[in-house]
Amino acid sequence: MQGVGYRFFVQRLAMRLGISGYVKNMRDGRVEVYALGSASQLEVLRAELARGPRGAQVSEVAEGDARLDEGFADSFAIEHDSW
């Protein structure tokens, strides 16, 4: 999902919901979102991620557990991978 402003969409949404973490593009074209928040915050985030910004076609949203990284506990960033 690249070229439609998806990372900026996710960052604005997460900040509005009070979620911390990050979003980044992956080499294979997928987008990774690491999100820290309450169950209700994450539920809203997931629904909006599936919808995406205008112009995006989201084919799938997969989720799983991740190790807590307290470095992302206070903000939501757009990470830039150095492929």
Report, as a whole number of angstroms, the end-to-end distance: 16 Å
* Beta-strand content estimate: 15-25%
Portion of residues in helices? 25-40%
**CATH level-two architecture:** 2-Layer Sandwich
According to DSSP, the number of beta strands is 3
Form type? globular
Quaternary status: single chain
How many domains would you count in the coordinates?
A: 1
Report the uncertain regions. Answer: none
Number of H- or I-type helical stretches? 2
The CATH topology is what? Alpha-Beta Plaits
Radius of gyration: 12 Å
CATH class group? Alpha Beta
Which structural class matches the secondary elements?
alpha+beta
Biggest sheet record: 3 strands, mixed
Could you tell me the mean pLDDT?
90
Neighbour order of strands in the largest sheet: 2-1-3
- Encode the helix/strand succession as letters: HEEHE
Notes on the protein architecture:
- 30% of the residues lie in helices and 18% in strands.
- The protein has 83 residues and is an alpha+beta fold.
- The chain has a single domain (6-78), classed as Alpha-Beta Plaits, CATH 3.30.70.100.
- The chain has a 3-stranded mixed sheet, with helices on one face.
- It starts with 5 loop residues before the first helix and ends in a 5-residue tail after the last strand.
Descriptive labels:
83 residues; 2 helices; 3 strands; alpha+beta; Alpha-Beta Plaits; 30% helix; single chain; three-stranded mixed β-sheet
State the gist of this model.
The chain has 83 residues and is an alpha+beta fold. It is built from two helices and three strands.
